[in-house]
Amino acid sequence: MTAESTGIGPDGVEQNSKGTIRVLQLYPRDMNIYGDWGNALVLRQRISWHGYTPELLEYNVGDEFPADVDLIVGGGGQDSGQLVIKDDLQSQAGVLTKLAEDGAPMLVICGLYQLFGRFFKTRLGSVIPGIGVLDVETHGTDERLIGNVRVATEEFGEVLGYENHSGQTTLGAGVRPLGTTAKGTGNNSSDGHEGARYKNVVASYLHGSLLPKNPAIADFLIRTAAERKYGTFTAGAPDDRYAVLAREHATRRPR
After folding, report:
1. Which residues contact 156 (CB under 8 A, 6 or more apart)?
2. Is Ligase tagged as a keyword (predicted)?
3. Which of 116, 222, 224, 122 is nearest to 175 (CA)?
């Protein structure tokens, strides 16, 4: 319970809560590399700080897809992890596309960023089909893009993170980049863009985890989820002391 809660009501929600926000982590068993599970943990904490009740759910291969999901987050994985989930992900393409088109907030990182696109063609020429939520395509290469990244964005200010990928992603006309790289590479080694934005979907190659160092993105996802579900969002008072310190340290790191 939060500090001001007076107990749990019959619907299972804290009595002083503004409401429940259900966060679904996609494929944490296979797509949770470089600490991407930390993004779900940050969302859970910040939802509480904003005065809502978080409900953190998982979806893995073969599970029943939960109903009434408010916010979706998914991480990265090696090519082997993508092969494990690819068929199951295709089976959920309809529900995920419907949620995205309806404005559900989503954060997809690295491997799931690629599979939310049209396809990922591996370095050896095999094609892993995506679900087409994002108008992007990815090609595996022999070049590994690795290191600390700073991204200038209009929505979220400076975004900080760490990239490690050999797939290079090109954006189509149906999406816009998350931002422009000030340090690091981003989507590919040629155009200077990082990530993708479509409706309320945020896609990025940045691990680290991303959200502990970028609370503005976390709060966008939470606000959007609350507005979509309840019609309004009233911010709480998150404790950003550690986020500020993390950003200071990340800014000083070399490439």
Report:
1. 179, 214, 216, 217, 220
2. yes
3. 116
| Helix, strand, coil % over all residues of the chain, rounded to 5 | 30, 30, 40
Active site residues: 110, 207
Mean pLDDT taken over the chain: 93
Region of 119 (left: φ > 0; alpha: ψ -120 to 50; beta: rest) is: beta
SS3 115: helix
Nearest by Cα to 116 from 40, 125, 99, 124: 99
Q: What are the pLDDT digits (tens) for 85-121?
A: 999 999 999 999 999 999 999 999 999 999 999 999 9
CB 84 within 8 A of CB 61: yes
Cβ neighbours around 129 below 10 Å, total = 15
Structural element, H or E, at residue 58:
strand 53-59
User: Residue written as tokens 């809660």?
Assistant: 5
How distant is the alpha carbon of residue 47 from its chain centre?
15
Nearest to 76 by CA among 169, 175, 163: 163
With 0-12 CB in 10 A as exposed, 13-18 as middle and 19+ as buried, what is 64?
Answer: exposed
